[in-house]
Design brief:
The complex is a heterodimer. By secondary structure, chain A is mainly alpha-helical. Chain A contains 13 helices and two strands; from the N terminus they run αββαααααααααααα. Chain A folds into two domains: 38 residues, no CATH class; 238 residues, MetI-like (MetI-like fold). Chain A has a two-stranded antiparallel sheet. The longest helix of chain A is centred in the first third of the chain and has 38 residues. By secondary structure, chain B is mostly helical. Classes of the chains: A mainly alpha, B mainly alpha. At the A-B interface, helix 1, helix 3, helix 4, helix 5 and helix 6 of A face helix 1, helix 3, helix 4, helix 5 and helix 10 of B.
Chain lengths: 296, 276
């Protein structure tokens, strides 16, 4: 072997030594689980022993025909359909407000971002306190003569209550993403618009909004992916009740795998969810690209 | 435009921000106030929001006789280990991607980027089975080792280290330094700002994680703060004052760190999404 070849070999060896911790972790904790999960989804696997029977696509068929899965599927879609648009609009409005020349900017930003660094469990606790039958929300409504509502126990209000909390939690994070996008709009564009006699509204429509399109795609896709995976808050606040009205897909998967102890079926649900997430994000990006074409 | 327009603008902005501000901050204030209450939990009117007598007894209860001291210790051990692992391994691998040449570099980097997008629930069941086979259920190892090197850390370090000049590396090599020596004594100290962001992001992620401790632990003494809090509620659902004290204990350290380092935290947490 010549010197150049030996040198190259040495370079590669050094580099792979640097990479080795990740390679090991990737193989054991990412690649293996993904493949193993796919295998499990075609088997009947219990929790107690590692003996699996190959059952083909039975788990997938069982899942898709299970009324609880259908309920969980529609609930999750309902959750996305309500929280994503509201969060997007609110975070955009707040970003524009926070980004303008006002005193105490940082204070506002920090306050809105706080829920992002707070544990979902703590947030759930805070809201359970607010929503408690004898809690503050009911006493505020009571002063207006409105009767007590069992927020988390009533089939009509349980899921909307969780959605409201979820919006509360997410708004600050997406607001900051919009702030980053707003700061990249050149000030000269606004100056030009003002010279052309544009008011605040028309500045927003013709300068701000078109420049936020790219970030909006990112915000909507990220938020949709996160919302499709909603679990912890539902697990803590309602356990999916009352009458499965708050059961989401990940909760359904968790219950199937770790309460009913059907690990094979649980893996099938995980794969269905992953495929669904990928499809949703692909469709969203595609739709927004089309809209962009029409707009221009 | 004037003055009138800008005054109008400022007042609109304040109006838009004031109500959300109250809505955002109120639950925190309410949690703190509740945790300091010595006078029961029943709220009949607005004035009951404020504690009539302020006491730290609830904190003493949950940390002393209650299990939360142990949960706090568990969360700390796990978060610190995860952070140390990510500093070391994240920067090692990030350095390789930023400054070394090797076969398969681009393909491997694409793999790292795609693992950032895998939904957690796909790995949940196999990870649980793996940990059980290894006998790691109910150990710190199960909660630390799979998280020692997050793709996000590699990405963060690689982005930062790419911006460091190659000349210093070459100069050090001429002086006889090994590749690891260059990384350890020259590049890592220069990458301190990125390390700061990494520490915060990984600490928060680990401190607030819920589903993995839920699945990978059985016994009470291995619970982390979020898990302990969620399950504490399970058997004592009306003990609000203690629950809020426990919530404060698990939130206040993080919130303090956040308020002090908010600039870096915001940069770090949005860096995965916002391209420069």
């Amino acid at each position: 072997m010549n010197t150049a070849g030996r040198n190259k070999l040495r370079q590669n060896t050094t580099a792979y030594l640097f990479l080795s911790p990740w390679l090991l972790s990737f193989l054991v904790f990412s690649l293996f689980p993904i493949i193993f999960s796919l295998y499990l989804s075609f088997t009947e696997t219990g929790l107690l022993k590692l003996e699996s029977n190959w059952v083909g696509i039975t788990n997938y068929l069982d899942t898709l025909s299970d009324p609880v899965f259908k309920k969980a599927f529609w609930n999750t879609l309902y959750f996305v359909a309500v929280t994503v648009p509201i969060t997007t609009v609110l975070s955009m409005v707040l970003a524009i407000a926070v980004n303008s020349r006002i005193p105490g900017k940082i204070f506002f930003r920090v306050s809105f971002f706080m829920p992002t660094v707070t544990s979902v469990i703590v947030v759930s606790m805070m809201f359970m306190l607010l929503y408690a039958p004898s809690g503050i929300l009911n006493s505020i409504l009571g002063t207006f003569g409105i009767q007590k509502v069992q927020w988390l126990l009533d089939i009509r209000t349980a899921f909307p209550s969780i959605m409201a909390m979820s919006i509360w939690t997410a708004v600050g994070f997406y607001m900051l993403m919009y702030v980053a996008a707003l700061q990249s709009i050149p000030a000269s564009l606004y100056e030009a618009a003002i010279i052309d006699g544009a008011g605040l509204w028309s500045q927003f429509m013709h300068v701000t909004l078109p420049h936020l399109r790219h970030m909006s795609i990112l915000v909507i896709v990220m938020n949709t992916i996160n919302s499709l995976q909603v679990f912890s808050e539902v697990y803590v606040m309602t356990k999916g009740g009352p009458l499965n009205s708050t059961t989401t897909m990940v909760l359904y998967m968790y219950n199937t795998a770790f309460s009913s102890l059907q690990l094979g079926k649980g893996s099938a649900i995980a794969y269905i969810l992953m495929i669904f997430i990928m499809l949703m994000s692909a469709v969203q990006m595609w739709l927004m690209r089309i809209n962009k074409g029409v707009g221009e | 435009m004037s003055h009138r327009q800008s005054a109008l603008r400022t007042s609109i902005v304040f109006l838009v921000l004031l109500i959300p501000l109250i809505v955002m901050v109120f639950p925190y204030l309410y949690m703190i106030s509740m945790s300091l209450k010595g006078d029961g939990m029943i709220i009949k009117s607005f004035t009951d929001i404020f504690p009539k007598e302020i006491t730290l007894q609830n904190y003493v209860d949950v940390l002393g006789s209650g299990p939360f001291g142990r949960y706090f210790l568990n969360s700390t051990i796990i978060a610190v280990s995860v952070v140390v692992g990510n500093i070391l391994f994240g920067s090692m691998v990030g350095y390789a991607f930023a400054k070394l040449t090797f076969v398969g570099k681009n393909a491997l980097f694409m793999i790292i980027l795609s693992t950032m997008m895998i939904p957690f629930q796909v790995t949940l069941i196999p990870l649980f089975l793996l940990m059980r086979e290894l006998g790691w259920i109910d150990t710190y190892a199960a909660l630390i080792i799979p998280n020692l090197i997050a793709p996000m850390s590699i990405f963060l370090m690689r982005q930062y280290m790419s911006g460091l000049p190659n000349e210093i590396i070459e100069a050090a090599k001429i002086d006889g330094s090994t590749e690891f020596g260059v990384f350890w004594r020259i590049i890592l100290p220069l990458a301190k700002p990125a390390v700061g962001v990494l520490i915060i992001v990984q600490f928060l992620g680990s401190w607030n994680n819920f589903i993995f401790p839920l699945i990978l632990t059985n016994s009470e003494h291995m619970r982390t703060l979020p898990l302990g809090l969620a399950l504490y509620k399970g058997f004592n659902s009306i003990d609000w004052v203690h629950m809020m004290a426990a919530s404060c204990i698990s939130t206040l350290p993080v919130l303090l760190v956040f308020i002090i380092f908010q600039k870096y935290i915001i940069a770090g947490m949005t860096s995965g999404a916002v391209k420069e």
